[in-house]
Hints:
- By secondary structure, this protein is of the alpha+beta class.
- The chain has eleven helices and nine strands.
- It has one domain: 2-Layer Sandwich (Alpha-Beta Plaits), CATH 3.30.70.
- The relative contact order is 0.17.
Amino acid sequence: MATTTLDEILADQSEDEARFSRAAMEKRERTKRTIRWGMVIDLVKCTRCHGCVAACRVEHFLPLRVTWVKLIASETEEGGVVDVSTFPVRCNQCKEAPCVDACPTEASYRRPDGIVAIDSNKCIGCRYCVVSCPYQNRTFLSKDKDPGYFPDYQKTRFEKMGEKLYPHQVGTTMKCNFCIERIDAGLKKGLKPGIDREATPACVNTCQARALTFGDLDDPESNVSQLIRERNGFVLQPEYGTEPSVYYVDGKIGGKSNIAPELAMTGSHITHLSSVDKTAREKFASSQGNRKEE
C-alpha cells in the first residue's frame, strides 16, 4: 500500500488549508515527542564545595546518616605530580534500570519522563534494588540511619518540619529523584526545568561553580544535549548497558581534547563505586602495575 506524504497532501489543498494542516500536524508531532530528564556534570568546574550535598539534604529533609548526593575523590599520579579528580555521584536515573527489574512489588518504577522513582507505600524493604544497583546509589533507611540529629534531646525544628513536608518511612529504600516535586510543580506553572530555578533540582540551583546542568536529553537542542555533543560527554560504567541519564564532561583528565580515557569513563578507578565490578577493578590494577614497570 502506497503511503502519502505530508507534502503530497498539502499540494492538493488551498494555501489556507495547507497552512492549517501543517500547523496541526507539527503540533501533533511535538506532543508525541518524549522527554527524558538528565544531568551533565562538569568535572573541571566542580570545586568539591559540597554545596550540592547540603542542598539535597535540606531540600529533602534527609535523616542524619543518609546522603543522596556523594562526592567521590580519586588521586592519580604521573611523573611525580598528583592530581585529584572529583566525581559527584547520585542516582543515574537509568533508562534500563536494574533496580526497577529487581523490585518484586513495582515500588521502584520509571516515569514517562525517564526519572526512576520509589513508591514507599509499596516498598517491602527487601533491598533487592540496593543489591542490583551497579552504582550503589540507593540507601535502605534503617533505624540506625535515622537516630535523630541529637538523640538525647528533642527533635530540631528541621526534623519536625521534615516530618510534615517530606516524611521518610523507616524500612524502605530511598535515593535521589531529581527533585521530582520541583519539576512537577514547575511544569504545572508552565516553567522549564533546567532553565527556571523553581522547576530545577536544588543541587543545580545551589552549585556556585555552575558545574551542574539539567535538561531534556531527548531534545537535541537542549542545554544538556549540546554539552554532551560538544564536550564528548560520557557516563560511568557504560558496560552495564543501563543507559544512565547522568553524564560527565571533563577537560582535566582527558586533556585538551575533552575526551576522558577509558578508566575515567568506566569509573573503574573508583574501586568502591561498585562492589560487584571485579573485572573493572582487576583491569585497573593491571594497568597500574604495567605503568609502574614502565
